[in-house]
Structures
1.
Amino acid sequence: MSKFAKASQPDAQGHFGPYGGRYVPETLMHPLMELEEEYFRAQHDPEFQRELSYYLKEFVGRPTPLYFAERLTRELGGAKIYLKREDLLHTGAHKINNAMGQILLAKRMGKTRIIAETGAGQHGVATATVSAMFGFKCVVYMGAVDCERQALNVYRMKMLGAEVVPVHAGQKTLKEAVNEAMRDWVTNIRGTHYILGTAYGSHPYPMMVRNFQRVIGDEARAQILQQEKRLPDLLIACVGGGSNAIGLFYPFLEDSSVKMIGVEAGGEGIIPEKHAARFHGGSLGVLQGTRSYILQDEYGQIQATHSVSAGLDYAAVGPEHAWLHDQKRVEYSYATDTDALMAFQRLAQLEGIIPALEPAHAVAEVIVRVPRMSREQIVIVNLSGRGDKDVAQVAAKIKL
Ligand SMILES: *Cc1c(COP(=O)(O)O)cnc(C)c1O
């Protein structure tokens, strides 16, 4: 194994180099360790893996196609572009890969109640969906501002039988929703499992969520080898907490010929409080259970963030990405709101696919990079979700 693959396994306390770990109150240490133990047992249990594969195939809709974007490729005149179609999954985004893995784990642990946090509502909908399917009680914490911005997803969650709790503290967005979910977990630890939605938080979450999302990269690797008889030259994915990106990247980390770019939200430009590009203005800090790159002021107070895409609008990034950044294994760039909106329209009109605003940031990077590449090269873009949820927001910004 190369040094990347090995070092990308966290140590026993969940550190990726200087990042990650467990920064939680005493009362959460025990449930985190219990979760870690049960996860390792499940990971090596063929019966658990069989059950997970079954539901991923029959309910979630895997495998997703690796689709050659012929018109976008011709238009940009460079490398061949393939889209990993996570937008075709049940509930419309990659989030359900992880939600399904974790609900099966909760079932195994004898839990009866599920809690989750959500920003745009995609993770909340995925969690409400798997909870309904297995008959769990489900409570989703969501910032009051997000509840208003994403009213349709609030309604979807309620329709699925979940209780949605609006959080009125602070900026009333994702960060405050995570705080409330952690408070709930401390109080109701016995019967409750917390389904965290991205490759973030205390160990074992970043590693566990990555392992539930690596199915994206495992499939893409097999598909490109079958279709092109060789590995891709470049992988591109958007980075919020980092789960869809690490899910695609992880199975290629040992392949040194494969370059990778993670795209963060540049918002209105790299000005404090106007973006969420943690690698362009962030610094080392601790937030919500882990150590990573964080957008903070000189006193260590968490800065406000902005992005047109709620799913990328968070002040911290997953610890494995921080480590891969420092190792220079993955390059991290950003796309602004304007770049993402242009890419959103371009993909819709050239390929007949309306992407979510999050992966529209990845498509914006494709539009910049691909024309500088040769026609023999191959790029895979993770199309992490579909854009139905964003249509009203885009309509307010773009006149057609
Ligand atoms: C939530 C979300 C993201 C961002 O989360 P990651 O954990 O960084 O993947 C990206 N795309 C879509 C469609 C999402 O719903």
2.
Amino acid sequence: MKLIFERSVPGRRCSILPPCDVPETDLGEFGRTKELHLPEVSENDISRHYTELAKETHGVNDGQYPLGSCTMKYNPKINEYTASLPGFTGVHPLQPERTVQGCLKVLHTAEKLFGEITGMDAMTFEPAAGAHGEFTGLLLIKAYHDRRGDTKRTKIIVPDSAHGTNPASAVMAGFMVVNIPSTEDGLVDLDALRAAVGEDTAGLMLTNPNTVGLFDKNILTITQIVHEAGGLNYYDGANLNAVMGVARPGDMGFDVVHLNLHKTFSTPHGGGGPGSGPVGCKAFLKEYLPGAGVVQTPDGYCFAHHADSVGSVKAFYGNFLVVVKALTYILMLGREGIREASQNAVLNANYIRTGLADAYDMAYDETCMHEFVMSLEQEKHAIHVSAMDIAKSLLDYGIHPPTMYFPLIVHEALMVEPTETESKETLDELIHAFLEIHEKAKTDPAYVQSAPHTTAVKRLDEVQAARNPRLRYVFE
Ligand SMILES: *Cc1c(COP(=O)(O)O)cnc(C)c1O
């Protein structure tokens, strides 16, 4: 397709600017000296450009998106409606508190409800994404030890099944990472954990259900081991989709948690974002939270700065409109609906898992939570068809591939997460596609190895794309 710059024709316009109503100022030496290369196109050109772009890609509005660990659930349209209300979009973060009472009520209500869902006492909405929330949460843990003069606690324990952002955030927050292995059945190895904790343990980072989709039945023992060693427990709540309304990190022994509103709470990811990664904590960590919280007084809502804050991690109050969308989602579902969403997410994952278990090797052969992992290792050796080949083949069915080659502890991994927002018909379509591809791989492996066959672009050179990305248009 043509790029927007290639559609450009000098002098073509799509908007007429209103007359300037402020005095013109000469910027002098700060003025632009080179021409500004903006595409010059009509509204029609722009509209077609974006429609064409949308057709070349795959989004949750095009078809299923069973991308494990990412919870690509449908984004309800009502979220967009509430987030576009002028009372939310027309405010300025420096307005006097009494003029933004509605917005403060949103933050206050969201803190209360997310606190209830996670079992935490206080929350900040500043972090803009999951990894940003991890970093913020780890700063709370650091502050806790530092303020007590316990400065030798420099290590964060992370299991080998962890999401890659966990060790990265720990290092960014100034900790050293101690990796502990998982057991054969994909859970935390308790003996390894006991051996790893000590006087230098700042805390543990864990997600439960873990990245292979299993709920760790030893969770209370795990968090206790860390507490007894003097460390704190951090819960990676990016994917709360299996347990929201059912089980709470706060009751499992966790002290800090982050949520990905752009996963579990139905707000868009990536290009449709921005994200939001609020961090919740127990009361004893509250005063370390970034920036200000919202409190309710007889005179209305107002900001209250945290007494011993680790400092702000983002300007003002985070991606506020994303919080509006997520709050809309939980208010629409209600207490029962939230629980039902989790139950259906788990049911849907198990429906697919059992539908595929005769053909595909399951990495862990037991009831899963909201996602499951299979391994294509056997196929890779026997018929040279890899996890990548199967994933690419799904594109020909109008289905986005599952997560590939993650978690690292499973070889040739495919990680499938359907979410609760798919119907039985779409789940059946996915099962059918997977089974048909598996059959095809046996009779005509070359066809599967060269998939996709129907998309705008075929196999991309991923190494080249990662090593030498071309991210901007080069003018002649
Ligand atoms: C997605 C995810 C993250 C990171 O979230 P971002 O918003 O992408 O930074 C962290 N942990 C887990 C388990 C995740 O699935």
3.
Amino acid sequence: MNDPTPLAGQHLRLTRRYFLQLGAAGAASLGACPLWAQAADGEDIAAEDALAEQLAKLQYLTREERFLNAGRGSPPPHTLPPEKLREVGLHRDTWKLEVVPDPDSNAKVESPLSEARGTALDWQGLMKLAETKAVRFMTVMTCTNGRTPFGMGLWEGVPLRDVVWMARPTANVRRLYYYGYHNDDPKQQFRPSLPIGRVLEDPPGEHPVILCYKMNNRLLTPKRGGPVRMIVPDGYGNKSVKWLQRIVLTNDFKANDSYAEQNNDTNSRVKTCARFLHVPEKVKARQPAPITGVAQVGSSGLTKVQYWLCRQGTDLPADDPYFTKAAWQDAEILPPPTDWGGDLPDGKLPPVAGQIDPASGKPLVWPMRYTIAHWAVLLTNLAPGKYDLRCRTIDAAGIPQPMPRPFAKSGHVTIQSVPLVVEG
Ligand SMILES: Nc1nc2c(c(=O)[nH]1)N[C@H]1C(S)=C(S)[C@@H](COP(=O)(O)O)O[C@H]1N2
Ligand SMILES: [Mo]
């Protein structure tokens, strides 16, 4: 197999299957879209590449080399030469994690894990904990200010609470903050924080905050934040610190996240929203147009993806900025994949308790919160003209995007609009 884009291919097969299921009209639509027809024949590599580029945004599990990267650092820590990585503790042989009380607060911690005391947690210590405590779950990495998800990982790690308890906090701890290697330059420090309660227990059906050492069943690369990063499954990416080295337990009750200094709402949980993947620029009148996209499933769940085709030039109501009164129609949320992609060793999903039924190998619920789902729709009976095509989600409470919170700095959820030309 030397297909450079197996995940893109996976999405293509999945969406083709959907369109083919729609019967003759569906099958014909594939021919109506040149990109798809060529890619399906495997003849036109350029078209396949162009399609793959779009589809890459919509893989289920994202392979390491396709994962989008964000983060501070000059130089970015993952680009340091191997001997330097080793020297600064970003190698499994030299990595140490401290869990200490905040010197500026009265937090009581009986057994801090610290370099000075020789009690910091090392890789072997973490692996020892992993023998009995390791958990795995799939969640999407998505940035507060990102338009599309950065990627989805199957993350493995040890619940943070198990390491917090090792430090024996006894009083005056309301939050914790944490950071990674930052070139020893305080200006480069990236420091999120969490309420202690989020760490110590999880609402039913939610995943724990973890000290993560594997993605897609492979050890974390330096680029992905290895040897160990935080993964906060319900949070935006800014909570998931890479190159983690220090956790500070504090009685400060305020969030002191560095990302908040840029006007970000760092406590917002991941929100539900839809994006387009493939929309043909031009279609012929009365020929079906296949449309695909991705939905990010946030804390409020996902019940529907909808689209609205609106002729350009139509007056839009001034008092309805989110088009709640428009003629939205339902798209189809595609079923779970059989091949999860992500370059998993042996191509197989390991057991994922809590998300995947061990007997059937299928998700326990679909779509899954804090992950992505693919969606598609076939537009038919199109009259010639120029249109704007929009998509949105409806969450589990029946509330349409971008409510309940339209504030951009709480997570980007604007309703996407793309042009579509139907030729006479
Ligand atoms: N150490 C460190 N961790 C960090 C950041 C950073 O600047 N430094 N940026 C965060 C932000 S804002 C995001 S969106 C995610 C992106 O994770 P990724 O590079 O794995 O996609 O990393 C987070 N972790
Ligand atoms: Mo981010």
4.
Amino acid sequence: MSDFLVDNKGFFGRYGGAYVPEILYKCVHELQDAYLPIIESKEFRDEYHQLLRDYVGRPSPLYEARRMSSKYGCRLFLKREDLNHTGAHKINNTIGQILLARRMGKTRITAETGAGQHGVATATVCALMGMQCEVFMGQTDVQRQHTNVERMRMLGATVHPVTTGNMTLSDACSEAIRDWCSHPADTYYLVGSTMGPHPYPDIVARMQSVISEEIKWQLLEKTGRDYPDYLVACVGGGSNAAGTIYHYVDDDRVKIVLAEAGGHGTDTAYTAATIHCGTEGIIHGARTLVMQTDDGQIKEAFTISAGLDYPGIGPMHANMADKGREQVLAVNDDEAIYAGYELTRMEGIIPAIESAHAVAALGKMHFKPQDVVVLTVSGRGDKDVETYLNNKPMAKEYGNF
Ligand SMILES: *Cc1c(COP(=O)(O)O)cnc(C)c1O
């Protein structure tokens, strides 16, 4: 058994578990009992893979980025999750969970969203399946991410602005869980990342594992071997990273480098770098690393990237970072912006600002010319064009326009 995947009690090493209030105990256990037989069934797998192919547009290409390769002195391949329907990896997970919900007899979906990307991916699959969709979103984010709110409403979802706490993702999670508590019989809570109580981190990692499943055969086709020397991804809650590494966690030939959001810097109060700055605690039903005060109050996360703006981290990554299996680099806002411009100008790919954090990690790494590097571009940057333009890099090669 792997030291890095979930154990039979719902833990990743010392992290994970299901720390839920009494009232949710039954819902969580119902899901724990139901999920594996369903998602391992042939019927489920057939329908899931058919939708990934015909609806999402998978497999996503593995593209050898030649100009960036020569700049960094390695063979760099980009795993293009930005080309999926709705523009990011999140749809891999929502497609899988909506099929799970349907097989459990649920008719109503509830979800939280920060930037709105998970909300849009959830509203999309609810429209596809004709299911009722309730999305909880902090009032601050409703204002910051207005286009995504309009998209969700157009798709038929009800968006509930949350006005408690900081009115951001963390508060939206709490409200979605509260909604689940009050409609336990007909409602499925559709979590957007590898976080929350067991079995969610495991469910989401399995749904995203299609990314590394494809990397294996695509690399074999392109390089003659099915593993890279390095895997690189950004990490918010940790789902695109989990999918990128899933089939390689026990393969010591593969080094794993993740980029978390440093914000203004890990030595400031304006950061979302949970693995660097967090301490052990409980957030949204899981034991993991959390950015918190000495008396356990959860701190607000800060980063230019709405999708990485979470004061926790999935328990799978807390464990892997602890055990030294993952190297985690903090990438600051300005470094991510610069890297976003670099990928745009060198390869003609505008990455999501989240993904640009992974690109920036390349500049902090050292390669040999024969090294094969696979970097997951988790999403496209259409949603971030305004942010990129309002924060032009100081460097003269990209700043003068
Ligand atoms: C939501 C999001 C992320 C962060 O979520 P993870 O669960 O850590 O993958 C990263 N990139 C994009 C494009 C996103 O939309």
